[in-house]
Amino acid sequence: MAELSAVVRDLDDELRTSEVPDYDVALNGLQLANSGNVSRVAAAVDYSANTVAGAIRERANLLIVHHGMFWRTQSLVGPAYERLRAAIAGDLAVYGSHIPLDMHPTFGNNALLAKELRLECSGTFGRYKGVEIGVMGSADVSTLELLDRIRSFSSRYNTTAVSTPFIDSHKTRRWAIITGAGANTDSLGEARERGVDTLIVGEGAHHTAVEAMELGLVVVYAGHYATETLGVCALADHVSKRFGLSWVFVDVPTGL
User: What is the pLDDT of residues 123-150, one digit of tens each?
Assistant: First the structure.
């Protein structure tokens, strides 16, 4: 058993929650308190009715999520009320970490995905409000082989990774990763500026594929959900080891 306040302090310090910029509505950190103690931790990508139910079913009283409770101004009615009611009734605290978790060098989605794909990071990538969210590095690997690695990873979360067209002999020599919604005009422009030939993201709009082909850039869309499973699990494992608690991953794939 650990005090919720001690766990929150540890997470806030580790993630630099108060320092890292994010969307104004993200509200990183403790988003919902419980009665004050934590005995079991659940990790999930999203705060949703299913993940709240799963955490309670697993007898967890702290849910760590990447996509938290707040993303827009919203009345607490309908599904929003039901999710909150269930969490409070289950004495379930909710801790959310978005960009602070994305960019963490140890527990971050980007660093961990690179490790999962057997890619060695040599720097950061993906400028946002004065920080760089993603990672980048050099390689000498067939892009077909890299795509196979990505597809193998994504399939574990009911996601099919797809890429923009490339010839079979294409080599990945300089890559970058931005998990989640990482493909946009800014990231494509930065990739070209920094000599990246293969950009790995979670998802992106159709126009990003068109732009990428015009820029001579291969973009692999590995799945928003899949690419953001790693960080919350690493964070829950950190809490488990730091405070002697058990933890569980509540897997609710979206297929995207």
Answer: 999 999 999 999 999 999 999 999 999 9
Residue type, 69: M
Confirm if 153 and 116 have CB atoms less than 8 A apart. yes
Q: Is the pLDDT of residue 73 over 80?
A: no
Please state, in angstroms and as integers, the Cα–Cα distance from residue 76 to each residue in 24, 70, 141, following that order. 19, 11, 50
Q: What Cα–Cα distance (Å) separates residue 34 from each residue in 87, 144, 192, 240?
A: 9, 48, 47, 18
CB atoms near residue 226 (< 10 Å): 27
Tell me the two tokens of residue 84: 């909150």
Contact 62, 4 (CB under 8 A): yes
3 membership: H or E segment, kind and range: strand 2-3
Q: What angle do CA 17, 50, 246 make, to 5 degrees?
A: 60
d(CA 215, CA 230): 30
Tell me the one-letter amino acid at 60.
A
State the SS3 of 173-184.
EEEEEECCCCEC
Contact 147, 168 (CB under 8 A): no
Please identify which residue in the block is written with the tokens 């938290």.
68
